[in-house]
Each structure stands twice: as structure tokens, then as C-alpha cells.
Write a structure and sequence with these properties.
The protein is α+β, with helices and mostly antiparallel strands and about 400 residues long. The chain has 2 domains: about 240 residues, FAD/NAD(P)-binding domain, CATH 3.50.50; about 150 residues, no CATH class. Helix content is about 35%, strand content about 25%. A 6-stranded antiparallel barrel has the order 11-14-13-12-15-16. A hairpin with a 4-residue loop joins strand 3 and strand 4. The longest helix has 22 residues. The two termini are about 20 Å apart.
Length: about 400
């Protein structure tokens, strides 16, 4: 996005890609479907990020959700909005998204060089010296969009942090975000493959909730995954003692505990001859129902009519407040996003230019800016990339250095 925009403004633009093929991470995203943005307005994107979202105001004003959708549609990528607000290609193919970006890049006149990793970058007078694995290159402006450390097998191994730090930038310690959570409870692993479409999740420390989210959940051999788990995971990965945290699950978030207790009492009386596990399937999948019986030391062949009040209270508590001790996360290898990165107060949000080094621009996941699941992180990447490319090109095209008393000088 940055390279195409810069080249469209007639700046001679070179895009260095260390992989043998471009856009590997795009192809992996969204389960290979690529959730390219969220169906909201620019304000909704900002609010989803919380206080750090203010950094995105200028980028979204320059290239927001509407511009993103228009760009992909102009490139022949029809989109659809799912119930969750996630926006996907109608084809459900991330390849279509990548090909659209590559077509635009090619038309822009930018040069894409594959399989040429950058090793070193230095500021030399009024230009940058870039040493790659093959040769030495020079540039008036440099845009770093190297991503974070998530999914390192796709090429995002945190290279940009060292370069930014060498230029004096503060790096907020990177940590995994949107990552599956591990728990050391044997019965959870036995439910691997079970999916629930609507679960309320809390991360609790000393009885105090740190974060709440609601959405779909997947049991796995290592613990838990699914959108709602990924959304709360940054609290775990960012905690000094993640094993002190507890994951609380409400499997029936649409019904209050007292109402659920009464509903279970009535169903057990009405369908007394049925197995209790079968009655519980009114609210949860059969495998989970049987496991909750085991956890509460109730036989799986117990008839509904035989359910005592004390047993019913225990079951309802499990349905509404199952608590699991957390052991950690699956780390960067399975994280969709990296939290942490270049400190935002060292980057001019109006231009994406470094406040420390004229001519150096930073965008995307390299910044200390991570959003929730649902296309928000891609939108931030498109927007900050576009703005960086736009402002860098205008700076290069300018015949003189523009004085700016509120920010860094632009490059020549």
C-alpha cells in the first residue's frame, strides 16, 4: 500500500521483500480468507483500539474504511460482510486480495524486488544507505513496514525493531496478541474440536476481571482458541505472571444464572426419563454436557429426574462460571498480531514520519498499535501505509526542505 501510493505520486519507488514471494502473511490471514477490514466507520476503528486509537485519526482521514472497500472493489474484489462485522472477499480467497494489491503496485510503477533481505540501514548526510544481502542501495526516504514478530515463518521476524532502535526509537517490548491460550486442565484437551458459537469470557486476577469479551470458542489439545479467546489473549501475554490468572467461561451468556437454574429444573421435571446429558444439550453440545457431568462427579447415565437441587446448582455454576487456570499462550508462532513495537509518541501521526530521523517513515504492525480481531489490524496497516507512502512521496518530490516547527523536517 505504501509503495503503490508513493509511486502513484511519481516518486521513484523500490519495494524490498525478503521472501521469495510477496504477501505470504496476507495469504495466511483469516484462515486463508483475509478479513480485510471491519464494517464500521473510521470512528469505530479508532474506538476499537482504545486510547492508542487516537494515533490513527489522520491515517483514517486520509485513507479509511470506505477508501479501502472502494480500492479493492475497483480491483475486482467483491466483498461481503458477515454477522460479526468482518469483511471478506466474496470468493473467500486471500489470494484475490493479494493479487489486487500486486496489480495496483504494478500499475503504479513501483519496482518490486523479491528475495532481497535488508541487512543494515544507516543515515548518510541527506540520504539513507541500505545494505542488502546482494548490494548497497541509496534512498532519500525509507518506509519501514516490516511487521512484528507474529507468524515468524511468514518472514515477520522482528527485523524492523533493531533498525528503528538503532535510529534512537524506543521499542515497547513486543508480545503475542490474538493468540490461543494454554490451560493445564486435562478435560479441556478431551474436548478438542468442540466449537461453541457464543461464549462470554473473562480473564480474572484475584477475583477482579481484567477484560471481558463474547464470541465463538474452540476447544483444542493445548487449551482454547477461537475469536473470543484471541481477543482476550493480549492481557495474558502482557502479564508478568500469567499463571496467576484465571479464565472464566460462561457457556450460556444469554441467560442469567437464576433463570438458567429454573429452566434446568423445569426441563428435568418435564423430561425426567431422558439422560441428564441430553437435557443439557438445550444449552451446550453433547460432549461438553457429558464432560460437565464428569467434572461435577455425576454419572453420565444419570436420568434427569434424579437430579437433586444441590447437583443442579453445581451444574448451573459450571455452565455459567467455569474457571480454568491459565498456563500461558502459544507465543509468536501462533499469534496473529504483535503487541508492542515502536513507541507512538516518537512518530508523527499526521505523516507517519519519525520525529527523530527526517526521511524515515514507519507504518503497520511495526508500531506499538494492536487492535481486536475482526479486520481492525489490516485497516490500520492499509491506512498507515497509504499515509506514509503519500507523505514520503510528497517530501521526495519537494524541491526544498519544508520547515515545520511542530514536527521533524521533511526529507529532500
Amino acid at each position: 500500500m505504501a509503495a503503490a501510493r508513493a509511486a502513484e505520486l511519481s516518486a521513484r519507488t523500490l519495494l524490498l521483500e525478503k521472501n521469495r514471494r510477496p504477501g505470504v502473511k496476507i495469504l495466511m490471514s483469516g484462515g486463508t480468507r483475509c478479513n480485510l477490514t471491519h464494517a464500521t466507520d473510521n470512528r469505530g476503528i479508532v474506538e476499537a483500539y482504545g486510547p492508542p486509537g487516537r494515533f490513527l485519526h489522520s491515517a483514517l482521514a486520509a485513507f479509511g474504511v470506505e477508501e479501502t472497500l472502494a480500492l479493492f472493489e475497483r480491483e475486482g474484489v467483491a466483498v461481503k460482510v458477515e454477522e460479526t462485522g468482518k469483511v471478506f472477499p466474496v470468493s473467500d480467497s486471500a489470494t484475490d486480495v493479494l493479487n489486487a494489491l500486486l496489480r495496483r503496485l504494478q500499475r503504479s510503477g513501483a519496482i518490486l524486488v523479491l528475495d532481497e533481505a535488508l541487512r543494515e540501514i544507516e543515515r548518510e548526510a541527506d540520504r539513507f544507505l541500505l545494505q542488502t544481502i546482494r548490494q548497497t542501495r541509496y534512498a532519500k526516504c525509507v518506509i519501514l513496514t516490516t511487521g512484528g514478530r507474529s507468524y515468524p515463518r511468514s518472514g515477520t521476524t522482528g527485523d524492523g525493531y533493531a533498525w528503528a532502535e538503532r535510529f534512537g526509537h524506543t521499542i515497547v517490548p513486543p508480545r503475542p496478541a490474538l493468540v490461543p491460550i494454554t490451560v493445564s486442565v486435562p478435560w479441556v484437551a478431551q474436548l478438542r474440536g468442540v466449537t461453541l458459537s457464543d461464549v462470554a469470557v473473562r480473564i480474572v486476577e484475584n477475583q477482579k476481571p481484567l477484560i471481558r469479551r463474547r464470541g465463538s470458542l474452540l476447544f483444542a489439545h493445548f487449551g482454547l482458541s477461537g475469536p473470543v479467546i484471541l481477543d482476550v489473549s493480549r492481557v495474558v501475554s502482557g502479564h508478568r505472571e500469567p499463571m496467576s490468572l484465571v479464565l472464566e467461561l460462561d457457556f450460556v451468556p444469554t441467560t442469567k444464572e437464576q433463570q438458567l437454574d429454573e429452566a434446568l429444573r423445569q426441563e428435568s421435571a418435564r423430561e425426567g426419563k431422558k439422560l441428564l446429558a441430553a437435557v443439557l444439550t438445550h444449552w451446550v453440545p453433547r460432549r461438553l454436557a457429558e464432560m460437565l457431568l464428569e467434572v461435577n462427579q455425576l454419572p453420565t447415565d444419570r436420568r434427569a429426574a434424579a437430579l437433586s437441587k444441590a447437583e443442579r446448582i453445581r451444574l448451573v455454576a459450571s455452565l455459567k462460571r467455569t474457571q480454568l487456570p491459565i498456563s500461558g499462550t502459544l507465543g509468536f508462532g501462533r499469534a496473529e498480531v504483535t503487541a508492542g513495537g515502536v513507541a507512538l509518541n516518537e512518530v508523527d501521526s499526521r505523516t507517519m514520519q519519525s520525529k527523530l530521523v527526517p526521511g524515515l517513515y514507519l507504518a503497520g504492525e511495526l508500531l506499538d498499535l494492536d487492535g481486536p480481531i475482526g479486520g481492525y489490524n489490516f485497516q490500520a496497516a492499509w491506512s498507515t501505509g497509504w499515509l506514509a507512502g503519500d507523505r514520503a512521496a510528497r517530501a521526495v518530490n519537494s524541491s526544498s526542505v519544508a520547515a515545520d516547527t511542530t514536527g521533524p523536517d521533511q526529507c529532500e
